[in-house]
């Protein structure tokens, strides 16, 4: 029998992997992908809560979450393209000066 | 039966998620992320929300990842070298993540559901497309509008960010 | 929309996809019309007009004597010099005169089928016939000798030509030949 | 332990999946023949003629040729993705057919059981189809990227941009059909169009034809057929994303392309032309599957007819049509449909 904890633990493992990706990787694209991973882990736990607490709110929030994630990706990639045009790099440690 | 499927999906999802943050080629990363998203969609089906699964595949796999791949290809981002891959921040970051994992794992195992249960039966949740639609347009109409506005702003913002300035042309931005 | 301004008629045309439908009707018309492809080697073969200048042929008169008198005018008239004539004299009666060709060869690879030789011929012995399947696999067949050219071509002079006939494959030791069946012809514009 | 009835159900599903897969694997053979025949006759030629009567065996000859061709992997290509890409484009094309209803239930004589002519009736059927259909893009993008070739990469890039642009218009068309039929399930969609042909969604005036036009144009762009085949534009890109592919991998791409064409035509039949419903009540009993196949076949012929009628669009024209014409028209149409359904 699947319990809520199964889903929560899976969600949390994915969340930790996402955090690790954000902290460990230098490539902005991978960092953005790790952010998507975090969004997804949150979606899993929200959907699991919706199912096990018999309420629709979690499902609705997943829909909002996905929308926000899509917006975030659009903006993030646009910033990435703009940064790449001016600096010719995608590595975060090379993007340390504000002034350019 | 369900448990077997859950474990298959969960293990593949975790393995591909680890691959996302560990392989050096961004395109391979994106591929593994697609695999991970598909597993998450399957887990949504286990959670009796086919609508969420379809939306997950449609938006994440069908649109977001295509955008990622498009960006990787347009910018011609090559492989990372090993030195860039393992940097000085690696050990503290790893310790932090493991600590986080331990703490929240302990919290999850000790946690109990104390909130009152909702009033949706399982049959309603299984055919939840209609229920989701109804609550989106009644109970959550205000957040829904805000989110759609956010999406519009993001769309316009993305276009503004990548648009080359008029008059300058392509030559000047490249220099 | 053109730069001159807003054109309502143009917009209506675009909304109703009129140009698209016009194009579709044109292609549908072609789709149901008859194909003009000639199914050349297997089923059909083109019989050229009399004016066609194909493979050389040497004629005989009614009594079966060679018309060629080996005057070498054809060899002189030839712009590429591909015709070789070596005359000889005998009175065996194989020609219309005592002077006959000992050797009469044409190098088909060099010939450009201009028809000057046929114009130069005083006895109408030499004609450019209607044989056009000249492909072969080695150089030995590029030099056509008198003996080969004296064999009458499959399309006789009396047929006006200019139509498609049924054809069939015939296997010979030299290879596969496309033989026209001259009785079964149909007029077809090409 | 599951009982006999459950086992029979599972067996039935497996058999149905197998049959549909076999049909889809076999279908490109006659379709290539048909396409070449249509091409020939529109250009006042004959098309395939030499292999078998009327060239009917030509697809088999082609298949044998492709089977025995050397399988070339370019130098410095990404081997894993290069080999995976044809599969990635083929599997989603096949997976779409899980949700498509070919007909209502029929009695099967031997096992004496009602068998439905669809594999599953999902309550999010149309979303599933759009989502899975969108996945086939990965074969194109990754194939183009993994080939390590300029032409292939450009083809892949073009296809991804094209896909994102036209996916929006296509989803709007699907939303319009959902509004007209009041259901996300394809089965319900067909049932709502039963009766005479006036109940079909395409005759839901005035919005039905517009939705159909949007869906058709976006669908043509999604499956990369002329006039929108910018991804394999031989004039500028050699062969686009499959420039470096040969042999069976190339055949897989072709297979995926033809199956996608079948998908779009079948989907149009389900969404706009009333599925297996007869256009008029006829006294002679005609099996409903006949109507389905006939409508789908007519649409496939229409796609081929378009292919040999229209020239290819330029890339900027393609984007203009997608973003500046189709999407605004779809939005306005959505509004009109909404007012009509109140």
Write up what this structure looks like.
The complex is a heterotetramer of chains A (100), B (175), C (190) and D (342). Chain A has a single domain (4-94), classed as Helix Hairpins (Orthogonal Bundle). Chain A has 100 residues and is an all-alpha fold. Chain A starts with a helix and ends in a 13-residue tail after the last helix. Chain A is 77% helix and 0% strand. Chain B has 175 residues and is mainly alpha-helical. Among the domains of chain B are: 1-78, Four Helix Bundle (Hemerythrin (Met), subunit A) (Up-down Bundle), CATH 1.20.120; 122-165, no CATH class. The longest helix of chain B is centred in the middle third of the chain and has 26 residues, at 50-75. In chain B, 34% of the residues are buried. By secondary structure, chain C is of the alpha+beta class. Chain C folds into three domains: 1-33; 34-49 and 160-190, no CATH class; 56-128 and 136-152, Alpha-Beta Plaits, CATH 3.30.70. Chain C has helices at 8-15, 18-32, 73-77, 116-120, 146-150, and strands at 44-47, 56-58, 83-89, 99-107, 126-128, 143-144, 163-172, 175-186. With 342 residues, chain D is mainly alpha-helical. Chain D has one domain. Chain D is built from 13 helices and two strands; from the N terminus they run ααααββααααααααα. Chain D has helices spanning 4-26, 28-42, 58-68, 79-95, 125-135, 137-146, 150-181, 186-191, 207-222, 234-237, 247-272, 288-307, 315-341, and strands spanning 105-108, 113-116. The termini of chain D are far apart. Chain C binds chain D through residues 17, 20, 23-24, 26-28, 30-33, 35-37, 39, 42, and chain D through 38, 40-46, 49-50, 213, 305-306, 308-310.
Observed structural traits:
heterotetramer; C: Alpha-Beta Plaits; 3 domains; three-stranded antiparallel beta sheet; 8 strands; elongated; D: 342 residues; mainly alpha; 2 strands; globular
Q: How are helices and strands ordered from N to C of chain B? A: HHHHHHHHH
**Largest interface, Cβ cutoff 8 Å:** A-B, 70 and 87 residues
Distance between the termini of chain B: 60 Å
- Helical fraction of chain B: over 70%
Average of pLDDT of chain C? 83
CATH second-level architecture of the largest domain in chain C:
2-Layer Sandwich
Considering the protein shown, what is the CATH homologous superfamily of the domain at 1-78 in chain B? NADH-ubiquinone/plastoquinone oxidoreductase chain 6, subunit NuoJ
């Amino acid at each position: 029998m699947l319990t809520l904890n199964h889903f929560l633990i899976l969600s949390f493992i994915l969340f930790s992997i996402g955090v690790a990706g954000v902290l460990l990787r230098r490539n902005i694209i991978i960092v953005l992908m790790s952010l998507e991973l975090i969004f997804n882990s949150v979606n899993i736990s929200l959907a699991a809560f919706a199912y096990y607490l018999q309420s629709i709110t979690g499902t609705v929030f997943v829909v909002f979450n996905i929308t926000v994630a899509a917006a975030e990706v659009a903006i993030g990639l646009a910033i990435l393209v703009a940064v790449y045009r001016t600096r010719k790099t995608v590595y975060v440690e090379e993007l340390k000066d504000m002034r350019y | 039966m369900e448990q077997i499927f859950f474990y298959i999906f969960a293990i593949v999802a975790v393995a591909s998620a680890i691959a996302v943050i560990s392989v050096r080629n961004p395109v391979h990363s994106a591929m593994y992320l697609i695999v991970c998203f598909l597993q998450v969609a399957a887990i949504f089906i286990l959670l009796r929300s086919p609508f969420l699964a379809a939306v997950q595949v449609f938006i994440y796999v069908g649109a977001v990842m295509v955008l990622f791949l498009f960006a990787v290809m347009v910018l011609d981002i090559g492989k990372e070298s090993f030195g860039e891959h393992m940097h000085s921040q690696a050990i503290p970051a790893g310790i932090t993540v493991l600590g986080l994992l331990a703490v929240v794992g302990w919290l999850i195992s000790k946690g109990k559901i104390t909130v009152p249960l909702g009033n949706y039966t399982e049959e309603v949740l299984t055919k939840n497309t209609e229920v989701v639609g109804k609550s989106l347009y009644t109970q959550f109409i205000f957040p829904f509008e805000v989110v759609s506005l956010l999406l519009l702003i993001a769309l316009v913002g993305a276009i503004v960010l990548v648009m080359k300035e008029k008059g300058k042309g392509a030559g000047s931005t490249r220099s | 929309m053109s730069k001159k301004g807003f054109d309502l008629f143009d917009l209506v045309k675009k909304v109703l996809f009129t140009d698209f439908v016009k194009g579709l009707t044109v292609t549908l018309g072609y789709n149901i019309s008859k194909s003009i492809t000639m199914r050349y080697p297997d089923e059909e073969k083109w019989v050229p007009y009399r004016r066609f200048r194909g493979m050389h042929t040497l004629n005989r008169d009614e009594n079966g004597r060679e018309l060629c008198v080996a005057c070498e005018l054809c060899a002189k008239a030839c712009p590429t010099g591909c015709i070789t004539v070596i005359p000889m004299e005998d009175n065996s009666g194989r020609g219309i005169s005592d002077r006959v060709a000992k050797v009469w060869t044409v190098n088909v690879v060099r010939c450009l089928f201009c028809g000057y030789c046929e114009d130069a011929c005083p006895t109408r012995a030499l004609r450019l016939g209607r044989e056009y399947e000249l492909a072969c696999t080695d150089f030995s067949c590029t030099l056509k000798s008198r003996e080969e050219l004296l064999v009458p071509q499959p399309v006789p002079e009396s047929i006006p030509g200019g139509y498609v006939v049924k054809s069939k494959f015939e296997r010979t030791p030299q290879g596969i030949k496309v033989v026209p069946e001259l009785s079964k012809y149909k007029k077809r514009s090409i | 332990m599951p009982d006999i009835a459950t086992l029979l159900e599972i067996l039935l599903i497996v058999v149905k999946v197998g049959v549909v897969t076999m049909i889809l694997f076999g279908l490109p053979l006659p379709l290539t023949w048909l396409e070449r025949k249509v091409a020939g006759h529109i250009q006042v030629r004959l098309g395939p003629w030499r292999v078998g009567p009327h060239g009917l065996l030509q697809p088999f000859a082609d298949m044998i040729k492709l089977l025995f061709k050397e399988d070339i992997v370019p130098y410095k290509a990404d081997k894993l993705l290069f080999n995976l890409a044809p599969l990635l484009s083929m599997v989603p094309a096949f997976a779409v057919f899980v949700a498509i209803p070919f007909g209502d239930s029929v009695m099967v004589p031997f096992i004496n059981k009602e068998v439905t002519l669809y594999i599953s009736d999902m309550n999010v059927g149309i979303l599933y189809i759009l989502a899975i259909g969108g996945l086939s893009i990965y074969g194109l993008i990754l194939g183009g990227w993994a080939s390590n070739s300029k032409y292939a990469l450009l083809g892949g890039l073009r296809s991804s941009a094209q896909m994102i642009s036209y996916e929006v218009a296509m989803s709007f068309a699907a939303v319009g059909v959902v509004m007209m039929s009041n259901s996300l399930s394809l089965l319900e969609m067909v049932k709502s169009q039963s009766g005479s042909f006036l109940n079909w969604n395409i005759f839901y005036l005035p919005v039905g034809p517009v939705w159909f036009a949007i869906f058709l144009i976006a669908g043509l762009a999604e499956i990369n057929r002329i006039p929108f085949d910018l991804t394999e534009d031989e004039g500028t890109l050699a062969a686009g994303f499959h420039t470096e592919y040969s042999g069976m991998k190339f055949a897989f791409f072709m297979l995926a392309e033809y199956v996608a064409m079948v998908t779009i035509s079948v989907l149009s039949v389900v969404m706009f032309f009333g599925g297996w419903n007869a256009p008029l009540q006829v006294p002679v009993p005609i099996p409903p599957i006949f109507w389905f196949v006939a409508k789908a076949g007519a649409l496939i012929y229409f796609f081929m007819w378009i292919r040999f009628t229209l020239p290819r669009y330029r890339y900027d024209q393609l984007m203009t049509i997608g973003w500046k014409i189709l999407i605004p028209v779809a939005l306005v149409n959505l509004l009109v449909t909404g007012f009509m359904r109140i």
